[in-house]
Write a structure and sequence with these properties.
Layout lengths: L3 H4 L3 H6 L6 H7 L2 H15 L9 H14 L4 H13 L1 H9 L6 H15 L6 H9 L4 H29 L17 H4 L1
Helix pairs in contact: 3-10, 4-10, 5-6, 5-7, 5-8, 5-10, 6-7, 8-9, 8-10
Length: 187
């Protein structure tokens, strides 16, 4: 299923390339609720106790595909590894960018690609295509949330890595300014 080492740490920290206690952890400690909510979203969307109509293998396939659309890196590796734990053959197809041969999953991957690369082009007919491929309403919502979350997660991890690699210069106290007396004060 998933890597227990990664489960022990925050996934965004892992994707940003840092373990506990570094610059990224310090940055993220400024927003503890945002950090906690992002990790909970990961768990709810990618490792739910009850996956409902979207099995874990399909969730990881979508995650690996979306991560690859954003480029190679730790996210694509993580999600491909999670997918390998569920279905090694499917992981190889996703890694190679080939069709899975499963109408349901291929429709979901096409929808994910649309949402990542051309979100403005999304329209109701695309949802009907998903329905025709066997996606129910809950599955379509889960798929869309998953793509949205992954895009958020990858952007946050990238931004944190950039910030950690280029820390802001130390701030100096603002120079003391003297207030110019008003007309009232000078009388």
């Amino acid at each position: 299923m998933s890597d227990p080492v990664v489960d022990a740490v925050d996934v965004i920290d892992h994707l940003a390339g840092e373990g506990e206690g570094g610059q990224i952890a310090r940055l993220r400690s400024l927003r503890p609720q945002a950090r906690e909510n992002a990790q909970r979203s990961y768990e709810a969307l990618l490792e739910p106790a009850d996956p409902g109509s979207v099995p874990l293998r399909e969730r990881y396939a979508v995650a690996a595909y979306v991560a690859q659309l954003h480029g190679p890196g730790p996210a694509a590796e993580l999600y491909l590894e999670n997918l390998r734990d569920e279905d090694e053959d499917l992981a190889e197809l996703i890694a190679a960018g080939r069709s899975t041969g499963e109408q349901h999953l291929d429709a979901g991957l096409a929808h994910a690609e649309l949402l990542v690369q051309r979100p403005r082009d999304a329209e109701p007919s695309h949802l009907r295509t998903l329905e025709a491929a066997g996606w129910d309403a809950d599955g379509i919502v889960t798929l869309s949330q998953l793509v949205s979350f992954l895009t958020f997660q990858l952007r946050v991890a990238h931004g944190l890595a950039v910030l950690a690699g280029n820390p802001a210069p130390p701030t100096h106290p603002a120079p003391t300014t003297h207030a110019i007396p008003t007309t009232e004060e000078t009388r």
